[in-house]
Design goal:
With about 230 residues, the protein is α+β, with helices and mostly antiparallel strands. The chain is built from 9 helices and 5 strands. It folds into 2 domains: about 90 residues, DNA polymerase, domain 1, CATH 1.10.150; about 120 residues, Cytidine Deaminase, domain 2 (3-Layer(aba) Sandwich), CATH 3.40.140.10. It has a 5-stranded mixed β-sheet with strand order 2-1-3-4-5, sandwiched between helices.
């Protein structure tokens, strides 16, 4: 005879219709749902004596109830929760990536960058949820119009290696006359390291040989950004 280990457990199908996540979304719109309820719709089913909403709450707890942290979790780490296999884990992370791309798509319609805040706003969606340092370069013309951007390297938790030859090869191919560098600090500390300052100065000096001017180096984190140009370190 089966004994329910959780006597308070009630399957979602037995909930009042107005409280069931899918029906609630249809009636009141997605904004009326909690994070757990939205996740429950994605994962569809719970596990034994816990509903999909209960399982969604466990997922959020693993991410410290922070959606930005959830986007950084590896699928296999997520699938360690009982009731979350790889298929459900991949579904959740695919949804997080779609949300990130939506944000990036709206921002990247902007074609002219005039200050550090604009550059940070452009790059932050690209670097969101990265658990390791990633280095981007933006290519601009004399009018500060964005000609394109490229990820130059990805590294570890505290550093990344930048190949300046690849950077300037791309800049010349795009007929760029200005550059903006950007990388993230997963630690959240926005202050540049000595290595950050050194590579910035190296790229600035090399650019002068090609009449390509480095106008800023932006460091982004969850709390904001730092501009080396604005802080007088360029």
């Amino acid at each position: 005879m089966f004994v329910n280990a959780n006597p308070t457990y009630l399957p979602i199908s037995d909930w009042s219709e107005k409280d069931q996540p899918r029906e609630k979304l249809l009636s009141n719109g997605p904004a009326s749902l909690s994070d757990a309820e939205l996740l429950a719709i994605l994962i569809q089913t719970g596990h034994k004596s816990k509903s999909a909403v209960d399982l969604a709450k466990e997922i959020l707890h693993l991410a410290h109830n922070n959606l930005s942290e959830l986007g950084k979790i590896e699928p296999r780490q997520l699938s360690t929760l009982r009731g979350i296999g790889l298929a459900k884990a991949i579904t959740v992370l695919a949804a997080m990536e779609l949300a990130r791309r939506r944000q990036a798509g709206n921002i990247h319609k902007k074609t002219v960058i005039t200050d550090g805040a604009g550059a940070a706003l452009f790059f932050k969606p690209l670097l969101a949820d990265q658990a390791y340092e990633t280095f981007y370069v933006m290519f601009l013309n004399n009018a500060n119009k964005v000609l394109g951007y490229k990820c130059i390297s990805s590294g570890g938790m505290t550093a990344t290696v930048v190949d300046s030859r690849l950077l300037f090869k791309e800049a010349i191919a795009r007929n760029a006359t200005k550059l903006i560098l950007c990388h993230n600090h997963p630690s959240g500390n926005l202050r540049p390291s000595q290595a950050d300052i050194s590579i910035t100065r190296k790229i600035k000096e090399l650019g002068l040989l090609f009449d390509i001017f480095l106008i800023d180096h932006i460091i982004v984190g969850e709390t904001g950004y730092l501009s080396l140009a604005e802080d007088g370190m360029l």
